[in-house]
Amino acid sequence: MESKIKKIAVFTSGGDAPGMNACVRATVRTCIYFGIDVYGITGGYDGMINNRISPMSASSVGNIIQYGGTILKSARSKEFRTSEGRKIAYDNLVSHGIDALVAIGGDGTYTGALKFSEEYGIPVIGCPGTIDNDLSGTDYTIGFDTATNTAVDAIDKIRDTADAHNRVFFVEVMGRHSGHIALNAALAGGAEGVFIPEKENEFEDLISFHKNKRREKQFSIFVVAEGDEEGRAYELANAYQQHFPEADTRVTVLGHIQRGGKPSANDRILASRLGAHAVKGLLEGKKGVAVGVINHEIVFTNFEEAIYGKKEINENLWIMNGILTRS
Description:
Rossmann fold, alpha/beta, 11 strands, 4-stranded parallel sheet
């Protein structure tokens, strides 16, 4: 594969997601396969500015595919948001002779990559690493499957104690602007209701249903996306308690537990595919795009669409969840 690119650097940025290490591994080893020198940038854009840039080898990424987090670390960089900071970052890349970048992260990472590539013309391809699954241009993002499985495992455990004490639990999962984790975890966990930013009036519908059709089962599990417009888990639990004073209501916030842990097989495979195709895309002359998988096929989407395109929840899952919880 003929290409002008001789050196590629890879970095992870923003919130960590299970599978990032698998993506780094695939990027590094694909570069080596095609005879490209590969560098790792420690600490995302902050590491780029502070010149934490080092060569990587096949052994650098040995025995990492099964670990969560990221061996390249991650950080948010206020300095990179300034033109002066980006100039320093570019000069550091030039000093190492780096021709192109693979950026693994979410919309903030993509936004920085878009600005950087526009200002300096350096080819960048993004890999969607975020548990929220909120980026356009791909059916799934790296870490989403693992985060959902973590949430479902927690819901299963909470259900045991909810049943034992006849309690009502509101379980808050991550997703400030996205209900993907909440909806999928609620469906897989057999929850009695789910509250997500994309849908309105869920709480009123829930209260109406429970008042008009009280069921024999005395315990319930409700899943709440942390950014749900109806209010977060504590607010919803308090409101529920006001309607049903007899209910023994509890709240569990899963928080950052969803970010950690060994990536699932699906996330490892997805991350490996995306990392490898990011390198291949750069060598084919692509730039300013994000790599993704749609209907099991590799696709490339421009950064603007990946960042700003609205990614809807699966409406069929929403409808099915309503059927299963209202019968």
